[in-house]
Amino acid sequence: MKSIGPRIIGLTGSIGMGKSTVAGMLCDCGVPVFDADATVRALQGPGGALLPAIEAEFPGTTGPDGVDRGKLGAAVFGKPEALARLEAIVHPAVAIAREQFLAQHCDSPMVVFDIPLLFERTGRGGMDAVVVVSAPAPVQKARVMARPGMNEAKFDDILAAQMPDPEKRALADYIIDTGTSLEETREALAKVLDRINHLDGNAT
């Protein structure tokens, strides 16, 4: 672990695994959490800083309410080259926002970067430890299928784009099982935070 500045903890997990719930629990504990998804929504929302660049690259996909997710999705879905162009716009902006967040919380003992595709896209570089949230596959599927507009085909496509849960678990420094009660999840999180706060070497 680094001895200067806050410990940087990566929080990740596949869709429906309870990452947002754990992130909320961290905020309740007073731990600063950088939410990558929320940052992207702000950058692409009404008046968002990325709207001009996205509109220039994908004409007709933005409007007064920000990015039209349906139109932008149609422009990049199943098109790797187009998706790469979009990511070239979004990822650098998110990285800048993340560094600004870290600077704002430089006196905190710990900060958490909530990054859904941490292993898939950014890797664990710069992280002192990575926490993976996980749940049994039937629990995950039930959660995701309960979301508005979700269907089997969309769920399968999302899973195909994400690293399988067993691989994420194997790469994790810490695993939090969210396929339990909220109280049990809070207890598991508290134990993880205690271990991180008392580390004087690498996570084990």
From TrEMBL:
Highest taxon in the source lineage: Bacteria
Pathway participation: Cofactor biosynthesis; coenzyme A biosynthesis; CoA from (R)-pantothenate: step 5/5
Reactions it catalyzes: 3'-dephospho-CoA + ATP = ADP + CoA + H(+)
A GO cellular component entry from the record: cytoplasm
A biological-process GO annotation: coenzyme A biosynthetic process
UniProt KW keywords: ATP-binding, Coenzyme A biosynthesis, Cytoplasm, Kinase, Nucleotide-binding, Transferase
Alphabetized Pfam families for the sequence: CoaE
Compartment(s) where it occurs, according to its Swiss-Prot or TrEMBL record: Cytoplasm
Binding site for ATP: G16, M17, G18, K19, S20, T21
GO molecular function annotation: ATP binding; dephospho-CoA kinase activity
Documented EC number(s): 2.7.1.24
Coiled coil: none
Record-linked InterPro entries: Depp_CoAkinase, P-loop_NTPase
Principal localisation: cytoplasm
Family in the record: Belongs to the CoaE family.
Role this protein plays: Catalyzes the phosphorylation of the 3'-hydroxyl group of dephosphocoenzyme A to form coenzyme A.
The protein's name in its UniProt record: Dephospho-CoA kinase
Organism, as annotated: Novosphingobium sediminicola
Lineage, highest ranks first: Bacteria, Pseudomonadati, Pseudomonadota, Alphaproteobacteria, Sphingomonadales
